Predict the structure of histidine kinase.
Amino acid sequence: MRRPASLRGRVTLGVLALLSVVLAGLFTAVDIALSARLHADARTRLTDRMALAQQLQGTLSMQRLADRLRGDGVVVRLCTADGATCATAASDAPPPGVGRPRGERPRGPALTRTASVPVETAGSVIFVRSSLPGDQILTLSLDTTQITEAVNRLIVFEVAGGVLALLLAGLAASRISRAALRPLEDMTVVARQIAAGDRGQRLDVPRTDTELGRTAAAFDAMLDELEAAEIRMRSFLSDASHELRTPLAGMQANAELLLRENPDREQRERIAVAMVRESRRAARLVDDLLTMARVGQGVPLVVERVELLALAEAEAERARSLSPGLAYEVAGEPGLFVDGDPVRLGQIITNLLDNARYATPVGGTVTVRVHRDGARVRLDVGDTGPGVSPGERDLIFERFARGDASRSRHTGGAGLGLPIARGLAQAHGGDLTYVDTGPGATFRLDLPAAT
């Protein structure tokens, strides 16, 4: 038998199979119990009549005794030991010439006990045989064909009723499963519509307290997340291509200038310096994009014990060489250690110092403070620049985002420094936030202290 392809068909088939097994077991048990009961009643009927015969023997003639014992399908044969004289009774009707008093209703024999005689079987007939006083042999027999026929008729009725019950159950199971599995069909339709390009389709189930309702709600949430991820990816690719276009256009313009004109040595050196600057800018942007991708997938860390103040002093010294017009102040508590990757932690501090360097005018000050707060070690990087407006403080941690005053394409980077720094901080079990401490901008790196 081929397995149905649809879930509804499999559910219906499973219900029908289970119901068939239950009905078959129930009908078989009923038939066996009924047949055993009827045969037991037939045997009891014979032994009861034999006990009655033993009580009445000697008080009635042979024929009258036989007539008294007949009834309920019992065939009576009472003969002398030599077989010369026999009296038989095989039906419930009174024998010829024997009347019943007017108004008297037939009644069964008054039983007082059951004779302990064996019940024997010959084909479909069961019988008992016993010797009575006076050299008489009594044989009582009963044909069980009617019992077998009654059980067979019951089986026919059970089969017909079972088939009808299975048909009704199959119809009901099909309708119920169709209604119960409708959300799955809706999910299929929505998935096909989305695959065809209609990204805004949703299930919008009214109830989420059922299994399928929760599945449909999770399906909608997954679609929302996938759509948001697609939007973010498209925005990321658009911003990345836009950022790369600027240095590539600069290199292309300088290269075309070299081809079109015959510049002198000084002009060639100036063009070469510009091309190197633009190529470095493009390379830095590519490195930042790779770092962002690794941050999203999980950055592999080489964890060791790092003193945060010493690392901050080393990075500040590098920043001094890049911007001698700014003052750098590093202070804090020595001996504050964190467990982390020194290269990645240095990258966080470098990004924060670069961000402060771009935002601080000449003659300004960049401060670095390291202190402990309970089980956390905090590093604050502040500057004396224009700061970040309240409406932009969440935006600056987005990729390719810049504040109007502190970042621009000409004075700053591509807008990936702070998102990369926050991603690396979170990879170390910490976070990077903006702290409103007054004039200028302050960013706080919060890390768990080393155990």
